[in-house]
Amino acid sequence: MINLKINNTPVTVEDGSTILHAAATIDIKIPTLCHMALDCFNLEHRSGSCRICVVEVENRRNLAPACCTPAEEGMVVKTNTIRAINARRTMLDLLLSDHPKECLTCEKNGNCQLQDLASDLDLHHLLYTGEESKYEIDLANKAIVRDLNKCIMCRRCETACNEVQTVGVLSGVGRGFEAVVGPAAMKPLDETKCTFCGQCVVACPVGALTAQSYKYPVWLALNNPKKTVVVQTAPAVRVAIGEEFGMEPGSVATGKLVTALRMLGFDQVFDTDFAADLTIMEETTEFIDRVKKGENLPILTSCCPGWVKFFEHQFPELIYMPSTAKSPQQMFGAIAKSYYAEKINVKPEDLTVVSIMPCLAKKYEASREEFSNNGVPDVDIVISTRELADMLKEAGIKFTDLQESEYDSPLGESTGAGVIFGSSGGVLEAALRTAADWLTGEDLKDIDFTAVRGLEGIKEATVNVAGIEVKAAISSGLGNARKLLEKIQRGETEYHIIEIMACPGGCLNGGGQPYVRNDSSILEKRKQAIYAADADKPIRKSHQNPDIIKLYDEYLEKPGSHRAHELLHTSYTPRESN
Q1: What dihedral angle (degrees, nearest 10) is formed by the CA atoms of 49, 50, 52, 53?
Q2: Plot region of 560 (φ>0 → left; ψ -120 to 50 → alpha; else → beta)
Q3: Which of 174, 310, 363, 477 could form a disulfide with 195 if both were Cys (CB 3.0 to 4.6 A apart)?
Q4: Cα(324)–Cα(570) distance, integer angstroms
Q5: Are 472 and 498 in contact (CB under 8 A)?
Q6: pLDDT of 1-45, one tens digit each?
Q7: Comparing C-alpha atoms, which of 422, 407, 442 is closest to residue 534?
Q8: Are 555 and 563 in contact (CB under 8 A)?
Q9: How many other C-beta atoms can be found within 10 angstroms of the C-beta atom of residue 346?
């Protein structure tokens, strides 16, 4: 343990702690901008590049950045001296001198840490003016907007991309005034191996990286009398949307969410959980078949488009491993534009499918060529949890005051197994519930496979399923996925099934969710809410969903049928690794 004094207050912290950590233990706030930490993912970015957190340390000539200066025995620190305060204001002045002054129209307005810092430091005029950087805005892809005019070189996105996700797209480019963070040769993101997971967007404290917004196309669709507009909501949305309206993190707002969407004008409000149940029917059928044949194992879940694109770039030699089942989003779109469109006698091109997703990669996924039929996309528009909140606020809907209502039929009925897709381990647990029943021919009561739950980056479990010792692994975060797959390549381990989600913690921490601002406890509360929603469901196994059973009876015949493969399965494309 280390003993020091901060602002004349004694502090004792573990060896290896920084001054910033030590100050936080006694509720002393030191302003930061480049620092980023999420304890539950063992992630901390300590570049010290912004110099906003400088403090005075006795017997040191220079000011020290608190975020990356280790606490030392006997150290005496002053955080609020005139010298430190003036240095912070100077650094902030310099940052703002090369930053666009368009806060009112910026996508991060109200969620910008630079904006917050200017307010905290009571900065109302700029000391420095002059030339500003000029870069073209990268709008070439369907998921992420990259505006380097707003880059402050904090390099948090670089940490997220390279250290957490190990995608390796972003790095420091240029020197001095020209320095920014971007891809090699400043290529547009769609010309790189970017997975569009959105973790760089979550990491960015300003508006240099934001989500492509499709709110206006949704408004246009809702106001088009020639279109029937339906919406699907992903499982993780219901446990996060309330945060945008002041509800406690972890509040399950499913009923209010359905009511709000009806008030916006959607013709039908459906649940992606229905399609998650459908995914389990197809994916578990494929899993059991592979286990019985002892072929192409381990099977890798294929629900996450960020993970799929990562796989296509980084591990093309293992292209046979992922399940061919589409993601729930795309399965929903395919069924909506076929089965449901026939039921309501609407042409697929006149049916607009809108998705509310916690994920930015879902925007990219919906645009993939294989997910359209005769030029008609399965999913037309994807907006994030944050975008939906913006629309509700624009419409003046008081979310917290809404009555609860139920999803529409037939694509709104779901089970607890569908709900848990929103958390890391949920897809695998849902598959195990169905596999256990199908292999034993029984309706088993012990269905909580808790060994696969949690926010840890890698989880391993051996689960007895109908007498078969199923070796399973769960990974969240692409860096952890890499570790697992490289172990398999080296022949160091064997699994039957692996679930992989691109975002650390799974979809509840997706790139389109409300910003957590370095508070990992919020993610834990969202996770708990997911499993509480599962426990409250009267049916908790996908294969027992009555509307899923009806769908197969009326339209798909059986899991793995020819028609099911035409509508619900896909293939993968090896891509360049550079």
Answers
A1: -30
A2: left
A3: 310
A4: 5
A5: yes
A6: 999 999 999 999 999 899 999 999 999 999 998 888 765 556 666
A7: 422
A8: yes
A9: 17
Selection from 159, 248, 193, 211 nearest residue 504 by Cα: 159
- The amino acid at residue 74 is G
Nearest to 474 by CA among 447, 448, 506, 446: 506
Distance of CA 462 to the CA centre of its chain: 27
Dihedral of CA 315/319/322/326: which sign? positive
Rounded to a whole number of angstroms, the distance between the first and last alpha carbons of the chain is 45
* Phi, psi angles (nearest 5°) of residue 494: -135, 140
Q: What is the pLDDT of residues 162-191, one digit of tens each?
A: 988 999 999 888 787 778 888 988 999 999
Amino acid found at 528: Q
Q: Where are the domains of the chain?
A: 2-95, 216-568
Closest to 478 in 3D by CA, of 275, 277, 344, 313: 313
Asked if 510 contacts 422 with a C-beta cutoff of 8 angstroms, the reply is no
What would the mean pLDDT of 311-328 be, rounded to a whole number? 93
Q: Which of 56, 54, 47, 2 is nearest to 30 (CA)?
A: 54
* Cα gap 211→206, rounded to integer Å: 12
Q: Which two tokens stand for residue 269?
A: 């409000």
Q: Which two tokens stand for residue 529?
A: 């809410």
What CA–CA distance (Å, rounded) separates 500 from 386?
A: 24
**pLDDT classification of 395: cutoffs 50, 70, 90:** very high
- The SS3 call for residue 268 is strand
Task: Please list, residue by residue across 513-544, b when 16 or more beta carbons sit within 10 angstroms of its beta carbon and e when fewer do.
Answer: bbbbeeebebbbbbbebbbebbeebebbbbbb
405-426, pLDDT tens digit by residue? 999 999 999 999 999 998 888 8
Q: If residue 2 lies in a helix (H) or strand (E), which one and from where to where?
A: strand 2-6
Q: Kind of pairing, strands 64-65 and 76-78? A: unpaired
Question: Which residues in 212-232 are b (16+ Cβ under 10 Å) and which e?
Answer: bbbbeebeebbeeeebbbbbb
Mean pLDDT calculated for residue range 101-107:
92
- What is the residue-averaged pLDDT of the chain? 92
Tokens in use for 160? 């997220």
Separation CA 512–CA 521 (nearest Å):
18
The beta strand positions in 14-160, using DSSP E, are 36-38, 43-45, 54-57, 64-65, 76-78, 144-146
For CA atoms 56, 57, 61, 65, give the dihedral sign: negative
Q: How far is residue 417's CA from residue 421's CA, in Å, rounded to a whole number?
A: 7
CA distance 479 to 475: 9
Does 216-568 match 2-95 at the fold level? no
| CATH code for residues 2-95 | 3.10.20.740
How much of the chain exceeds pLDDT 70, in percent? Answer: 98
Positions marked catalytic: 283, 286, 303, 323, 362, 365, 370, 507
Helices 305-314 and 478-489 sit at what angle, rounded to 10 degrees? 40
| Other beta carbons within 10 Å of 563 | 14
Per CATH, is 216-568 categorized as 3.40.50.1780? Answer: yes
